[in-house]
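Students often ask why we bother predicting the structure of a whole assembly rather than each chain alone. The short answer is interfaces. A chain on its own may look different once its partners are present, and contacts between molecules only exist in the joint model. In this exercise we take two input lines together and write out one structure for the complete complex. Read the inputs first and try to guess which parts will touch.
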Amino acid sequence: GAVVSQHPSRVICKSGTSVKIECRSLDFQATTMFWYRQFPKQSLMLMATSNEGSKATYEQGVEKDKFLINHASLTLSTLTVTSAHPEDSSFYICSAHTGDTDTQYFGPGTRLTVL
Amino acid sequence: AQSVTQLGSHVSVSEGALVLLRCNYSSSVPPYLFWYVQYPNQGLQLLLKYTSAATLVKGINGFEAEFKKSETSFHLTKPSAHMSDAAEYFCAVSGRGNKLVFGAGTILRVKS
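Now the answer. The structure tokens for the assembled complex follow.
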């Protein structure tokens, strides 16, 4: 149980294009999902908290117009990187929180490369 | 505010030896504490968590951790390291709004 999927696992795009990453909780409902960014050899940096049916809450320094988050249902949150630039290249990881066990379960991550 | 300190960014042990990864936390409220493992190019997998029940928590893959309030520690141990344990390990404390605050991570290397 408590499986979280992300799609795609890898994406390469040209500078200036937008990329959408999906995060799904497969066998549980998640009222809260989190989006993280991880740079090489570093820990996870929380970007935003996504609550179903409401606007995402962004951490300080994260551009909400660049990283659009939608949490359309209790099992799906999406992150769209708009007008991507090479500095947006990173490993993006989502997690889904379940109140049943008060635990975050993580997706496998998405490697974004912007050329 | 919560914070987590992981002592040692790299730990190297021989196969079969004891694994000890250190984690100290700071929290203004009784904490929920977690250990996650990350293999290269993958997400995080939950190893174990402490939620104010038993202070000795057993997790997957033979790992366990002991919550010591007096030392504000939550060290991760495994009696005998296996080559497949080589990975990066993150300690985390749960804060406001169920957010996790992560430590910097410890890379475990297992030598044959």
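Check your guess against this: The CA atoms of residues 68 and 80 of chain A lie 5 Å apart.
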